[in-house]
Amino acid sequence: MGTNYIALSVPVFFVLIGLELAWSAWKGLKLYSLSDAISNISCGIGQQLTGIFFKTALFFFYYWLFEHVRVFTIPQTGMWWVILFVAVDFCYYWFHRLSHEINAIWATHIVHHQSEEYNLTVALRQSWFQGFFSSLFYLPLAIIGFDPLMTITVIAFNTLYQFWIHTELIRNMGWFEYIFNTPSHHRVHHGSNPEYIDKNHAGTLIIWDRLFGTFEPEKAPVVYGITTPLQSWDPFKANFHYWSDLLQLAKLSHRFSDKLLVFIAPPGWKPKELGGREYAKPVTRNLFHKFQVRIPNKLSAYVLVQFTVVLGASSFMLFQSVHFNLIDLLLPISILLFSLLSFGRLLEAQSYARVLEIIRLLIFPVGVLVLGFPPLAIGIAGAFSLLSGVILYSVLSPNRRV
After folding, report:
1. Which is it for the CA torsion 274, 278, 282, 283, positive or negative?
2. Could you give phi then psi for residue 191, rounded to 5 degrees?
3. Are the C-beta atoms of 335 and 364 separated by less than 8 Å?
4. Three-state SS at 165
5. Dihedral sign, CA of 255, 239, 90, 209?
6. Among 167, 160, 183, 125, CA closest to 9
7. 367 alpha-carbon distance from chain centroid
8. What are the extents of the domains in the chain?
9. Is the dihedral of CA 240, 244, 250, 251 positive or negative?
10. How would you class 369 by CB atoms within 10 Å of its CB: exposed for 0-12, middle for 13-18, buried for 19 or more?
11. Predicted confidence band at 402 (pLDDT cuts at 50, 70, 90)?
12. pLDDT at 88 (0 to 100)
């Protein structure tokens, strides 16, 4: 399937996140919240882990089209790489635009817009299922005749470009703003201000928004997030809550045609008997209150340490997954995803969070065992879980609501 450039770039992502965090702290800017950053990265971890299964199937489907349906055989020369870059960006624009205009696709893309902060960790906040829809928009490239590895490489670099534009530290960039997507353009895209909604869908080139009437310059201060805030740090809720809303709305709709429209209509659409289309209300930074839950500093430190371990384990899975049978990966990946659920609930101070965490600590060494690690590694994992349990008990007093 070629080189996983996204996975290889993860260390660079975290170096840049560290630099942004340090610079913003030095300047006295509060751009980060620990709970929000962990939630963002958790969504990204989940997207990469579930992608181990999904990307393989999608690659072979693209490859099958290229082998059996292609009209031309495009050479891998410099000119065609440039043409493919423009074509991929054009396909991305239409996927991204329609993901804001069709409820079923918005149900996956909404994950990327839920954060009420705006920093480099938001770039990592990705849906676990968006790849199903986005991949469809690139299939015409296989039919035209662009080699699969060539296309996957350009898609990866289109995605990598979009990492750095998730920052408030870079303001206007002069002439560059007229051609390329920039932090200013993308801040608008993440705004819940009515004038900013469904604007600036560009991946790399902002020219598509200028051509197709979806461009909006940054003027008023941006209020980040979605119009109905998620109010949760749980990555599972982040990925499934809008699907639940759509299913509930379809259930309440009387006509069969309306039940279908729920999934293909724009976000905010409702049948007339249920109140009709809802539109975003005006919002300003001064009146907007971000979601936050106060938890003890010791618990925050505990979650951060545990999350770092899971992040390392997830990185290992990404790089080593080609050496394991996909069936054998199901349990370890499930344990890692369960870990992300547990962390989210601890950060929300949920009453049952301690039970989830104890279960996680009990089953974590099982993942090491299933992957066939030597007894020493299994013993270290078991000892770490035991020590973590002791620390968790000391951190959570019986009187705390966690």
Report:
1. positive
2. -80, 145
3. yes
4. coil
5. positive
6. 160
7. 24
8. 5-212, 297-395
9. positive
10. middle
11. very low
12. 98
- Closest by CA to 348, choosing from 224, 225, 227, 231, is 231
- Counting every residue written for the chain, the total comes to 402
| Nearest one of 52, 54, 135, 28 to 88, comparing CA atoms | 135
d(CA 137, CA 141): 9
Question: What residues does 224 pair with on adjacent strands?
Answer: 191
Q: Is residue 398 over pLDDT 60? A: no
Report how far residue 75's alpha carbon sits from residue 32's, in angstroms, rounded to the nearest whole number.
46
Nearest to 66 by CA among 9, 138, 16, 124: 138
Angular region, 129: left φ>0, alpha ψ -120 to 50, beta rest: alpha
CA neighbours closer than 13 Å in the CB half-sphere of residue 150: 21
d(CA 185, CA 218): 7
CA-CA distance, 166 to 184, in Å (whole number)? 9
* Cβ contact 146:321 at 8 Å: no
Calpha distance 401→351 (Å, rounded):
5
Which residues have CB under 8 Å from 363's CB, separation 6+?
335, 338
**End-to-end Cα separation, the chain, in angstroms:** 44
Contact 335, 367 (CB under 8 A): yes
365-372 contact pairs (CB < 8 A, 24+): 366/331, 366/335, 367/313, 367/331, 367/332, 367/335, 367/336, 370/328, 370/331, 370/332, 371/324, 371/328, 371/332
Taking only the tens place, the pLDDT of each residue in 84-119 is 999 999 999 999 999 999 999 999 999 999 999 999
CA–CA distance, 285 with 283 (Å, rounded to integer)? 7
Cβ neighbours, 10 Å, residue 231: 15
DSSP per-residue codes, 24-81: HHHTT-----HHHHHHHHHHHHHHHHHHHHHHHHHHHHHHHHHHHT-S-----SHHHH
The CA distance from 108 to 132, in Å, is: 9
Rounded to an integer, what distance in angstroms lies between the CA atom of residue 310 and that of residue 260? 40
- pTM of structure: 0.93
